[in-house]
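Chapter summary example.
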Amino acid sequence: MHRYTLSALSGNRQEQWDSFIAGQPAGNLLQSWGWGELKARFGWHPLRLALFDSEQQTITAAALVLRRTAPGVPLRAGHLAYIPRGPIGDRSSPSYQILLSELHSYLKGQGAVALQVELPFEVDGEHTDEFFPPQRRIPDPACRDSGFRKVPAIQPARTILLDITPGEESLLAHMKEKWRYNLRLAQRKGVQIRVAQADEDVRNWYHLLELTGQRDDFGIHTLDYYLTAWNIFAPRNQGRLLLAEYDGQLLAGIFVGLMGRQAIYLYGASSNEQRNLMPNYLLQWEAIRWARSQGATCYDFWGIPETDDENEAMAGVYRFKSGWGGRVVRFPGNYEYVYRPLAMKIARKLL
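The structure predicted for these 351 residues follows.
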């Protein structure tokens, strides 16, 4: 009898799934049960695969796989499979490699034409093209002469991670002086931070998000996307929308996700008015304080430009995120394994 078994988890296993993801050092919101629920509302088909250890009767590794196909085309006829910031498990453990190996045969049997993986582990240095060198490629007899190939990333390749295990005084001491001044200024001037309580709060915040996207030239999701995310994660204490107000006027807001030891600053919006009150600084500080109170040890500022060049389009975002005392981290990026090359060419045109 084989010790390890790969199984797809059904809807009544949510608690078991999230408990495993939250308990792993690399566990993150993008591998949570709720992230699959969110994406299911917007064209994806989530598949939650867990590798069980029959001796220990526990999950040893897991992967939330998001699958997408062309409208009207059944999954078994051909789909793209994508693992965002996963799989989750002990990368040095044999069970993790077994999961990666078993994924191939399972997904091909389900009709996948290709698999894309964005691993959740940090990499050293700036060169990650050889993250899957031949000796470490996922073994697969049907694809003996091929392996994963680097493709454009979907999630941010670089971010800033802040260790939030020290006390608040230590965190304040290690951020840039101007950052301490600005968040205290917001406090002195009477900026109030509160937690969103109703759909109407999300709608009001979304108006600011539209304004922010136009001002800073970036795309956003629909209102329904953020409402769905809030209604999934907030009741589970896996997400919070924090709002900054002054004299009853909404100035800014940030959506922060939480899974196990990691909090993620996912979305932010701010008004063009009263910017001198520095609401964004106080928002981030209160988000960090909340994450610490929930047992998180890491705060992910979620994405900075590829380089430190001051001429980068998002250089201002980098400056803001870098002032809190965290460290710059690079992830491997996105790697793709093609099972059916001809079908994949067609899929690239359709999707």
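To summarize the output: The chain has two domains: 4-155+332-350, 158-330.
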